[in-house]
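Objective 1.3, modelling of assemblies. Example input:
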Amino acid sequence: MKSLRNYLDKIKPHFEKGGKFEKFESTFEAFETFMFVPDTVTKKGTHVRDSIDMKRTMAIVVFALVPTVLFGMWNVGLQHFNATGQEGTLFELFWFGFLRVFPIIVVSYAVGLGIEFAFAQYRGHEVNEGFLVSGILIPLVLPVDVPLWMVAVATAFAVVIGKEVFGGTGMNILNPALTARAFLFFAYPSYMSGNEVWTHGMMNGEGIIDSYSGATPLAEAAAGNIDKLPSIQEMFIGTIPGSIGETSTIAILIGAAILLFTGIGSARIMISTFIGGLVMGLLLNIFAVNPFMEIPAWEHLLLGGFAFGAVFMATDPVSAAQTPKGKIIYGFLIGFLAILIRVINPAYPEGVMLAILLMNVFAPLIDHYVIEANIKKRLKRAKVKA
Amino acid sequence: MSKVIKIKKGLNIKILGNAEKIIKKADQSEFYAVKPSDFTGIRPKLVVKVGDKVKAGSPLFFDKFQPKVQFTSPVSGEVVEINRGERRAILEVVVKADTTIEYEEFNVGNPKDLSREEIIETLQKSGLWPTIRQRPYSTIANAEDKPKAIFISAFDSAPLAPDMDYVVKDCVDCFQKGIDVLSKLTEGKIHLNLNADYPPAETYTKAKGVQLNYFTGPHPSGNVGIQINKIDPINKGDIVWYTYPQEIVSIGRLFMEGKYDATKIVALTGSEVKNPKYFKILGGASIKNMVENNVNDGQLRYISGNILTGSKIDKDGYVGYYDNQITVIPEGKYHEFFGWATPGFKKYTASRALLSWLIPGRKYRLDTNMHGGNRAYVMTGEYEKVFPMDIYPVQLIKAIMVEDIDKMEQLGIYEVDEEDFALCEYVCTSKTEVQSIIRSGLDLMRKEMS
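Predicted structure (tokens):
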């Protein structure tokens, strides 16, 4: 470690102002601080600082996503093998999925981080760690057969239009990963919806056995084929077609537990999102006129990307509401609207993405009213006294 | 016992180095200093020059904005140094002490027979007026104001803070005399705020002319700003005064003995102190005698005050005017290899993002490393966990950053002080300098309102 440190100290002057490579100052700083926590000490204010920083925070979120990533890779293999009527060992299935999913992750990180580094350098900022999470979220919400160039285009769109134009990490209005997905959803719908996109190889139709439909449970439900829904157990474990990371409720719940235990994910948002979904589900049950509306409310929470959205997307602190009360309202409305869009709107069976993006836009408004209430309370107190 | 006010939000930082409850009389220090930087918002005008002889209680400088407020020498001796910083701002007025201290005589009497004006005049002349400060802004009280109440926080909840019950246990009479003086200054109540977690010292419970309030909960429950917020919050236009127990004892002693006796007890704390104990010193003393041969090797940071709000001093620096504590912790100038990825069994954090939560009872040797770089605001809800007022901390900070006076006022800037945000600064993953932002907001507000 020492020799590496010495080497970094030796080359550091070249990257500082006036050095040969001053254009790469942010890049150097990013790599240096990635390997070594800087030796800066407190100057004013508190003399000690908490041991966690942005890197640690983001690392925890990535860590919480690991179960969904691993399960997603295995499930890609499973769905393909099911579709082609093959049998395979656990490792074969995983390796098959790994080879399909890993390139998507690489492309997402390479494109996103490349743009982040360029912008950081252009602005003379340090590179923010936010994309470490977005970079893994983007692959997880995409179908496995999405072409890599589309991943690149969507990531670039999300980072530039979704984030950098607003001022970079911490300033964005919309969740970058969902911005990428929404971009693909509307730009290339044939690659993002239908029954063929969720299983590798199905779009080309090679060797797919006839009995395999490839439809996601949500699509079946939307079509009214309630009898074709997989068992609750299958939906909970996640051995069903869907976006790479969204299928396994149990893997998502492990991630949720990590986020909640460490205090990094907002419990207010997560829980209120689930409650919102349940409430809408119950309302639909009461007024049910078709089979989709009759699905038990709690089953909705297992379908589609609801759990994934509630745990990993809605809780993005930058695009969510920021006040404690606001978070509850924000989460509740996401759950409420997600199920409403899902069931009532025939064009988009997946309502979670749109519900979260919509509430991202409304989050500042929710906060505004929460804060206004606080201001009014203070004014009232002053008047009573006077 | 009256109602106990429970503070739920907050944090007790688990740091090593609590002072043992033994009061040692420190050898008399050779040098003493009064530091204008201890006093918010004053502009010092010197009345002495190097070589002048002074007595304990003789003025060293006064405030240009409140010329009657004198800042006096804690000892008799010779002014040996006037240290200046940037733009010739006065940093320290250093006095070399005589071996036996001579005191200025002040005409005092029983405070009950004196008028408010006479009391104020005595306090201002003796150099004890600055012990009384006001909210909003935390500046020295303006004698022309009529405060709606006076608040005294009689316990300190900050990390490694001295036990303020222990410190005043032998000063029952002086404390009562001090309270008598304060009661002449306000027509409102005098709130004496105690810790409900243990039986408080009789000095406090037997005090007459005060209202006792009890608090329980983690730091910042001992911050006077939090207590004011819970008991009788400040509205626009309100002024409340506040002071602390040892200061009241000094005031009491002035009115009993007619001299400025700056004696106080400070706790020498921190993981790097070999024998953390209490010391009886005179205010403004150099810490040299206390820390020499009493600290571990290595690069150290000496702090007058606590780790959250104290000020950095040299190893022969001087105890601040308001400080009851000296903390010595290690400097953190080192690189940590993949520090953000390690399990972190041995690192302390307020969250549970490191595995050190597995060992709940442990206390830590905390250093001054930043543990990360400065970033944009990303996380939310962090400040709210350690900020027990009904105020939105992040939104207030943002209003200050954009200098939106109206918003600052609406969001409650009058009720807060830097120290109330110290924990927010501590927990911040973006490593924002919250306290200095709050200070700049308060300064801006004070300029706007005057």
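The mean pLDDT of chain B is 92.
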